[in-house]
Design a protein that fits this description.
- By secondary structure, the chain is mainly alpha-helical.
- It is built from 6 helices and no strands.
- The longest helix has about 30 residues.
- About 25% of the residues are buried.
Length: about 150
């Protein structure tokens, strides 16, 4: 089960990133061009926040069955000094929980705002912050600190 969830989590991140980027493009264009906030924009807002929350749920489940996290908790004194183990035991989950919270709060705030440019502005600001946190918390293949492949196989 662990390898399957790990692969799913790895692949699903691309959907999270794509949906957030699409939502941000819509939000910035709507805000800067003072467009009306349509049902489609509301669906994009909701879909991107939902996808981020689903990824978080997969990640949380993965976190509790991960052998790396298990090692982190059972050998904390040593593990906290190991960059890769500390990243997955502490840093990644903390930053991702913050990012998804930021996105969820932004989604809710945008939904409740009026007029339409305020909805777009709220979504643009909160989703940008969330996306930046996510981007810096993903173990990219090019990262010198902690790297993982772009796509894990099932």
């Amino acid at each position: 089960m662990y390898p399957t969830l790990l692969a799913l989590h790895s692949w699903f991140r691309w959907l999270v990133l794509a949906s957030l980027l699409f939502a941000l493009i819509r939000a910035y264009l709507g805000w800067l061009r003072k467009k009306p906030f349509t049902k489609f924009d509301d669906s994009v807002r909701n879909f991107s926040a939902t996808i981020a929350n689903l990824q978080m749920m997969i990640g949380l489940f993965l976190y509790f069955i991960s052998p790396i996290v298990n090692y982190f908790y059972h050998h904390f004194q040593e593990a906290v000094h190991d960059r890769q183990v500390r990243f997955f035991g502490m840093e990644h989950i903390t930053m991702m929980l913050i990012a998804v919270t930021v996105i969820s709060v932004g989604s809710t705030k945008a939904k409740l705002k009026s007029p339409d440019p305020a909805k777009f502005k709220t979504m643009a600001i909160w989703y940008t912050i969330g996306l930046l946190i996510i981007f810096f918390s993903i173990p990219w293949a090019f990262s010198p600190l902690v790297s993982r492949p772009y796509f894990r196989m099932f």
